[in-house]
Design brief:
One of its GO terms (molecular function) is acyl-[acyl-carrier-protein]-UDP-N-acetylglucosamine O-acyltransferase activity. The chain is of the alpha/beta class and 289 residues long. Helices cover 21% and strands 22% of the residues. Among the domains are: 137 residues, UDP N-Acetylglucosamine Acyltransferase, domain 1 (3 Solenoid), CATH 2.160.10.10; 29 residues, no CATH class.
Length: 289
């Protein structure tokens, strides 16, 4: 174990083989750090945190803070973090609300500067939370999901596997797997085709996912009928996973963004080109809507 003499490491903490700990770190009693982790300066790892092996934690991160709640939490649950994650500067990850719960981060995730994971969140593997992403309590994020900078997810929401959420999006309902959310409108704008390709999903399976997507979002059927048809038509594979997603959750589901009605620009352009007066241009604007 190589650690800076200015680090404060409890004798009741477990520190694995080959761990590097920088100056001014605080490792509390009951914390556990796996082998070959690199802990930069000014990191706090609090009691109840289990950190797997080969993780990198950058300056100012706080792992295992108490849940942010109006009620005082007497017996918070643990924080469990997998292997080969990178937690950048000032990442915060909070304990679970109760001793029988947990806040869990999978393996091979990247949490960029200032990302916040609240109490009882469950984060899968290969997840990317970019700068200043905010996850409220009890949020679930599936494997290979990507959340853009400054996006915020409401408590109890789910973000499905291989979903992509645009920067500054306000996610207040569940995001199905394999889709993209526009950061401006916070609405669904189609499948995450690049993410599916990178995840090794076959073109045939992508086609089936597209069929399931169209059935749910564009068939015009009621919710119960749509979910029933998804279960009947797609029983295996990723398309079945897409359909099964709509059978769970408590927040409802993100709506699809529809293209706005086309605007007739040509009459306005012609009127301006002819240098007509405002009174003469007004009818063209009215016709264009």
């Amino acid at each position: 174990m190589a650690h800076d003499p200015l680090a404060r490491i409890s004798r009741q903490a477990h520190v694995g083989v080959g761990v590097s700990i920088g100056p001014f770190c605080v490792i509390e009693p009951g914390a556990s750090i796996g082998d070959r982790c690199q802990i930069a300066a000014h990191v706090t790892i609090k009691s109840g945190v289990t950190l797997g092996s080969d993780n990198v934690v950058e300056e100012g991160a706080v792992l295992g803070g108490r849940p942010q709640h109006l009620n005082r939490i007497e017996n918070p649950g643990p924080v469990v973090i997998g292997d080969r994650n990178v937690l950048r500067e000032h990442v915060t990850i909070h304990q679970a609300m109760h001793a029988d719960g947990e806040t869990r981060i999978g393996s091979e995730c990247l949490l960029m500067v200032g990302a916040h994971v609240a109490h009882d969140c469950l984060i899968g593997d290969n997840v990317v939370l970019t700068n200043n992403v905010l996850l409220a309590g009890h949020v679930q994020v599936g494997d290979r999901a990507y959340l853009g900078g400054g996006s915020a997810v409401h408590q109890f929401c789910r973000v499905g596997r291989i979903a992509m959420v645009g920067g500054l999006a306000r996610v207040a309902q569940d995001v199905p797997p394999f889709v993209m959310i526009d950061g401006d409108s916070s609405l669904l704008v189609g499948l995450n085709r690049i993410g599916l390709k990178r995840a090794g999903v076959s073109p045939e399976e992508v086609k089936r996912i597209k069929e399931a997507y169209r059935l749910y979002y564009r068939s015009g059927l009621g919710f119960d009928e749509r979910t029933e048809l998804l279960g009947e038509r797609f029983r295996t594979g990723a398309a079945a996973e897409f359909g099964d997603f709509f059978r769970g959750g408590s927040r409802g589901f993100v709506r699809e963004r529809r293209a706005p009605a086309s605007v007739a620009i040509r009459p306005i352009h012609d009127a301006v080109a002819e240098r007509q007066t405002p009174d003469e241009v007004a009818p063209a604007i009215k016709r264009a809507g």
